[in-house]
Structures are given as structure tokens and as C-alpha cells.
Amino acid sequence: MNNSSHADTTSATSRLALSICGYPTFCSVKAYNVCTDSLLGECSECSYSMAQAVIAAFFIFAVVIVAFNLLVVVTVYTVGKYRSMAEHIKASLAIANGIVGVFIFAINIPNIFWTLDTKIADIRRWKTDSYGSAIANVGGMGFMLFYASSLNHLCYMTIQRFIAVKWPQYYNEQTLYRIYFHLLIVWAYSVLIASIPAMTTSTFGYNYAPNVFQYFPFAINGPGIRVWFAVLLMVPYLGMTVLNALTFDTIRRRFKKSKELRGNRYSDAVKDYEKKMRILKKLLAMQAGFSLIAVPPLVVSILFQANAFICYDASRAYLATNFVTYLACFHNVCIYSISDQHFRNAVCKIYKRLLRR
Fold first, then answer.
1. Residue 1 pLDDT class (50, 70, 90 cuts)
2. Which among 97, 96, 99 is positioned nearest to 183, based on CA atoms?
3. Alpha-carbon dihedral of residues 190, 234, 128, 311, nearest 10 degrees?
4. Does residue 160 carry a pLDDT above 80?
């Protein structure tokens, strides 16, 4: 009984410590003491104009994310000449990226309006009570699904590129049904990763973060399941890195052998080499973009854990890095679609169709 009581007390203390640190980004740290009896929208320590700016920023990001990625999906499934196997993978990745825009509309923006119409005590209470709740699990899984599925899609694209270079005949013999089966596995693995905090609430679960107005995974007892969670996210990233290196090495080796050819055969080999390198560079750019976008939130977390940030600094830093993370949602679109002449031609065809109606 004593051990159980001690564990419950430790858990409650950890959650209380979490609830104390973190507050709406458009309020000063004094709001916790000055505005205990008033709504935050009427509090002198909260900036209503800043709250409007945050709402506008979330709204713009959500619209752009949904519009860009929806354009990719519509283009792939309406323009016949743009329906290669690679394009279906891109469409699936666009759906993964578009999820964020939907959840910004469904979670972040409503939470900002709720914050303006509530008191500090209610926010602190909800930050504690929301841990492991249904809405926290749904909201947290939605955003974590974006991170996991984007990473896993990039890893799958890297696998396909390596197969295309190493075993071109097998790559060309793949059917669309096989690609869809692989994508189903990608989505299943992504859902598994996103579901871990929702299934292990005794040690690791989703909780409300008032500084970014959404739900994030949070551990209340030791490393435990967090280590497995990190491993499941790191495996695809490391696999993608290794495969990109192997793909580059395979392309380089085959081109080196082709230097012995003469005439048109050598010219064709050069064109094939340049084409494969262009595709590889796009994949590397997408991986680099994902890395750069994922690093700032990690740096802020490390600085906060090292006490280099206090809550006042961390709240605004977390919100800023949150918006940086959203850039991944249309960074991929810019790399693999907008830079593609075939994609731009397909978009023009869709636009002309709309004008004829």
C-alpha cells in the first residue's frame, strides 16, 4: 500500500509540476498571479492583438498546408499522364502533410478561442486533467501521425529509389496494387507510433500544452516507453540516411563502368546518370528539410531541460519552433512537385478545365 501511495504521489507531483510550467503565449508570466479572477481575454497581462496575430498565423498556415497538399492529391488523381507509381506515393505523403492543416483548424484555433474565454485556474486544471483523456489522445495522435507518417513516407520513397537504381527490372515490374500495399504498411506503422502515448498513459501519454494550444506526448515516470518511442522514430530516419548513401554509391559505380562505352551508348548513360542524380538530390533535399525543421523543437527542449530557458522564454520559443515544424508540410510539396515541370503542366490543365465550366 505504501509503495502504491508513494507512486501515486510522485505521479501527481510530476503532473502538477508540468501544469505550473507553460502558459498562453500571448500572456506575460505575471498573468498567473494578476489575472486569477478574470478571463484572459480581459486580462491586462494578456495582449488581445497578439492573440489575434497568433490566430491569423495558425489560420494562414492551415489554409496553405491544406491547399498545397490537396492540389497534389487532385493533380495525381485527375490528370491521367501524371499517375505513375511515384506520384501515388507523393499523393499519400501529401495526405500525411495535409493532416496537420486539418488538425490546426480542429484543435489549435478552437483552443485559442477557449483560452481567451477562460481563467488561468481552468487552464492549469485542464493541463493536468487532460492527460490521457480522449480529446488529448485524438489531438495528440493527429499531430504525431504527421511527424511519423511524413518520416516513414520519405523512408519508403528512399527505398523505392534504391530499388530503382539497384534492381531496375524488379522496380518496373511492380504493380500499383503492390505500391498501395506498401503504403498501407507505411500508414499502419505510423499509426502504431502515434498510438503509443495513447496506449501507455500510466507512464507516457498525451497532455495539453497551453503555450502551443495543442496536445503533445509527455512522460510522467522515467524513460521506459519513451526510449522505444524514440527508437521507432529513429529507425526510419537512419534507414533513409543509409539507403541514400547506398543509392549514391550504386549510381556512381554504374556510371564509372559506363565510361568504357562509346558513342550513343555513352551519351545515354550520361543522361541516365544525370536523371538519377536529380531524383536523388530531391530526396536528399527533402531529408535535409525534414532534419532542419525537426531540429529547432529538439534544441528548445534540450535548452529547457538544461535550465537555459525559463517558462517565460520556453513558451514563446516552443510556439516559434512549432510554426517552423509546419514548414515541412509544404516544403515537401515545393521540392517534389512545384519544382517538377510535369506537375506544373498538370496544374495548368486542371486550371483550364475549371475555366471552361
1. very low
2. 96
3. -140
4. yes
Measure the CA–CA gap between 58 and 65, rounded to whole angstroms: 10
User: For every residue of 222-274, which 3-state class applies, written as one string?
Assistant: CCCHHHHHHHHHHHHHHHHHHHHHHHHHHHHHHHHHHCCCCCHHHHHHHHHHH
d(CA 100, CA 95): 9
For 233, other C-beta atoms within 10 Å of its C-beta total 16
Cell numbers given for 187: 500508414
Residues 6+ apart with CB under 8 A from 154: 93, 236, 240, 283, 286, 287, 290, 332
Report yes or no: 88 and 116 within 8 Å, Cβ to Cβ: no
Q: Which amino acid is at 253?
A: R
The pTM assigned to this predicted structure is 0.81
Q: Which residues contact 14 (CB under 8 A, 6 or more apart)?
A: 220, 221
Which cell goes with 180?
498501395
Which single residue is written with the C-alpha cell 487532460?
A: 130
The rounded distance, in Å, linking the Cα atoms of 129 and 151 is 31
List Cβ neighbours of 323 (8 Å cut-off, separation of 6 or more).
Answer: 57, 61
Q: Which domains does the chain have, with CATH numbers?
A: 2-356 (1.20.1070.10)
